[in-house]
Q: What sequence folds into this?
């Protein structure tokens, strides 16, 4: 324990803790909507698409964050506009994602740099975050949480009962695009922390467990955020103590280990149905 | 341009392996698209990533590790239930854990040396230009199993895909078929991953079949079209990378870029016919037509709500 407290004296550890916590809160909160909207494939694809933007930015010699923001927001709008039904969306997301990954690979081949740099973008390098990048990340996380707060009620309505929401004049497809854009912003800021491949863990893991445990949306988001923070802190602590295991692997394992018994032993059908009716009942 | 490269062993091996992988993925991809299981395909690829890196760590051929772990994950996903929509969260959890495991193995493996780090990149992004004869033999073995299984389940699987309720009523084991298909998909994913890597194999699994489904309605012609597109995309990608018109485009990039181009050209070429007929597919000579889920654009206006909710129960029969 004292050894852990000792670690807090290093600025890069504090940086990593602050950035990791900000990303965990933003990802867990938006992950709740992602899970309820069944947009998991899009949530998986956006960080991977961001990889192309980051690699392109590295090639051009600008900060990866800008490339990430540009390409993920663009892709979010495209996915939101093209994919209107399950099959089209599924295919479009898959094709756009593989194209972006291929593009990222091309950029890296052109960069002809060091493979470590690739691994950094793909797998994350939370301990290598600069103070400036940490500030940008925290600001963007706060912004996206604020946007989610503003969109909260209509987004919830259109998530649980899109037909009724449409009939009442809620702009369902606009909300769908806006939500994907929020997801894109979170993806691009969190890629540097978690890596393109594992950010998805923070999006899906806490929220998937929370929706099984708790009925009402607000509590589910709270539980999801708490779990997200717990995973990030414990994951970083394990990685710091052990020294060889990547942080992202610790976080992924933790979230899977917590999810598995919850999935197996908590029956969700009745709970979720009641959850839905309370949600729409409150809002309608 | 250096044409003499085309006579080399490297080129020949790349073409053989690429053709086999493209053919297998294009055929299996037809059902991936019809069943809207692109995310399941992607998750099996991510599991293959963990399998391949784990195998590399143990000194076994990555494709074998990918196939074994992929088969296990296919059984697990198959046991979860039938509806892709209901499974997306569970699949997401599998993806996230498999990626974490793969990254852990890769970090252990890549720490060894620079050549190991490059081998890790080859698993992620493909290694068509370094395919050896023994890889081709393994690929042929896996592909033979895939094609045999595919031919075996084709007719009942098509029935179960187009009309699950009708198939169940006639005693077709829909759930078993769904799991069998995931097993076939896992092996096809491992084959595709050898050609263009774990991250890009989804391009070969999805794009040719998705383009073919937009352009053709009869299963036989759609399959043939998908096969031609898949092989064409792969040959084109290999040729572009070999002839190097400009710098050094990696095979993975040229294949995924061609695949995206083919899909979006098909989307652009087919909008009117596609919108008019909805998602229909003609099976048999009497033009018995089964209609898929929603028609395009139904969500744009409030007035179409009824047709949307009536189609919600799943595919239903419509008149010829």
A:
């Amino acid at each position: 324990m004292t050894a852990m407290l000792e670690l807090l004296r290093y600025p890069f550890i504090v940086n990593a803790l602050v950035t990791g916590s900000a990303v965990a809160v933003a990802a867990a909160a938006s992950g709740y909507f992602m899970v309820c909207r069944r947009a998991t494939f899009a949530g998986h694809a956006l960080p991977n698409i961001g990889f192309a933007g980051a690699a392109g930015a590295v090639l051009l010699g600008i900060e990866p964050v800008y490339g990430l923001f540009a390409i993920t927001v663009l892709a979010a709008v495209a996915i939101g506009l093209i994919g209107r039904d399950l099959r089209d969306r599924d295919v479009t997301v898959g094709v756009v994602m593989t194209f972006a990954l291929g593009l990222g690979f091309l950029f890296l081949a052109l960069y002809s740099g060091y493979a470590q740099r690739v691994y950094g973008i793909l797998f994350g390098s939370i301990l290598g975050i600069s103070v400036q990048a940490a500030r940008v990340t925290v600001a963007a996380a706060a912004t996206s949480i604020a946007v989610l707060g503003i969109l909260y009620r209509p987004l919830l309505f259109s998530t649980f009962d899109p037909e009724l929401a449409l009939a009442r004049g809620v702009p369902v497809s606009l909300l769908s695009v806006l939500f994907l854009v929020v997801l894109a912003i979170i993806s691009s800021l969190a890629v540097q922390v978690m890596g393109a491949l594992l950010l998805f863990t923070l999006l899906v893991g806490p929220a998937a467990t929370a929706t099984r445990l708790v009925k009402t949306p607000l509590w589910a988001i709270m539980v999801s955020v708490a779990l997200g923070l717990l995973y990030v802190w414990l994951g970083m602590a394990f990685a710091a103590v052990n020294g060889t295991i990547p942080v992202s692997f610790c976080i992924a394992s933790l979230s899977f280990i917590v999810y598995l018994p919850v999935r197996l032993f908590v029956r969700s059908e009745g709970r979720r149905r009641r959850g839905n009716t309370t949600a729409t009942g409150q809002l309608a | 341009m250096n044409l003499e490269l085309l006579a080399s062993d490297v080129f020949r091996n790349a073409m053989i392996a690429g053709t086999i992988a493209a053919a297998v993925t294009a055929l299996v991809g037809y059902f991936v698209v019809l069943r809207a299981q692109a995310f399941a395909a992607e998750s099996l690829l991510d599991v293959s990533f963990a399998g391949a890196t784990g195998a590399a760590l143990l000194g076994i051929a990555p494709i074998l590790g990918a196939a074994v772990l992929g088969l296990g994950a296919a059984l697990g996903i198959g046991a979860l239930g039938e509806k892709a929509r209901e499974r997306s969260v569970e699949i997401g959890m599998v993806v996230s854990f498999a990626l974490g495991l793969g990254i852990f193995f890769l970090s252990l493996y890549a720490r060894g040396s620079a050549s190991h780090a490059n081998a890790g990149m080859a698993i992620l992004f493909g290694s068509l230009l370094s395919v050896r004869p023994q890889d081709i033999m393994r690929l042929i073995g896996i592909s033979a199993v895939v094609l045999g299984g595919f031919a075996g389940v084709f007719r009942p699987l098509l029935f179960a895909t187009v009309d699950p309720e009708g198939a169940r009523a006639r005693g077709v084991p829909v759930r078993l078929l769904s799991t069998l298909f995931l097993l076939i998909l896992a092996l096809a994913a491992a084959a595709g991953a050898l050609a263009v890597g774990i991250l890009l194999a989804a391009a070969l699994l999805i794009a040719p079949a998705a383009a073919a489904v937009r352009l053709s309605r009869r299963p036989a012609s759609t399959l043939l079209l998908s096969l031609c597109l898949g092989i064409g995309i792969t040959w084109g990608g290999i040729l572009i990378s070999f002839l190097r018109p400009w710098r050094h485009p990696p095979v993975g990039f040229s294949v995924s870029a061609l695949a995206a181009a083919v899909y979006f050209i098909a989307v652009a070429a087919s909008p009117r016919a596609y919108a008019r007929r909805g998602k229909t597919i003609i099976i048999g000579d009497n033009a018995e037509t089964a209609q898929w889920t929603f028609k395009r654009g139904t969500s744009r206006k409030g007035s179409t709500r009824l047709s949307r909710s009536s189609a919600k129960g799943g595919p239903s029969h419509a008149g010829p």
Q: What stands out?
A: The two ends of chain A are 50 Å apart (CA to CA).
